[in-house]
Amino acid sequence: xxxxxxxxxxxxxxxxxxxxxxxxxxxxxxxxxxxxxxxxxxxxxxxxxxxxxxxxxxxxxxxxxxxxxxxxxxxxxxxxxxxxxxxxxxxxxxxxxxxxxxxxxxxxxxxxxxxxxxxxxxxxxxxxxxxxxxxxxxxxxxxxxxxxxxxxxxxxxxxxxxxxxxxxxxxxxxxxxxxxxxxxx
Length: 185
Prior knowledge:
- It contains five helices and nine strands, in the order βββααβααββαβββ.
- The protein starts with a strand and ends with a strand.
């Protein structure tokens, strides 16, 4: 199974590929374009990783993004959801509008499937997971460590609404005990 991990709209945008649980390629966009603190989408980093692994986006089973935008849909927002400025915003406007029928919060990840047809007529399916930012930090630290069990603490400027979390990693699971919410960092 191949997973493409991406992160953008933060201080350093990046891409990496994991193949059957092993990191096989990864690079920060700034290393390829020579622009420090690059925040935009990591096009060159993604292409570098695909080239390094000798595959195309069609060979990727899942895409993981280290930020879950659904968490910002905790409360229906008429201004952003009712009148999209661009038709592609339906991908967020419709789920946000439907969220007004529910009480509670979005989960630690959101999932999206996009069916595509390539120029040569082949069909492709992009499967995108949007992962809670601090859970992505925790997974990076725990799953790349040599430990089967470990206490976990993450802290940085800000994720979706959190500046940190604490939990425990056991085998292939991470259980979160506490979130530290912005502005407390």
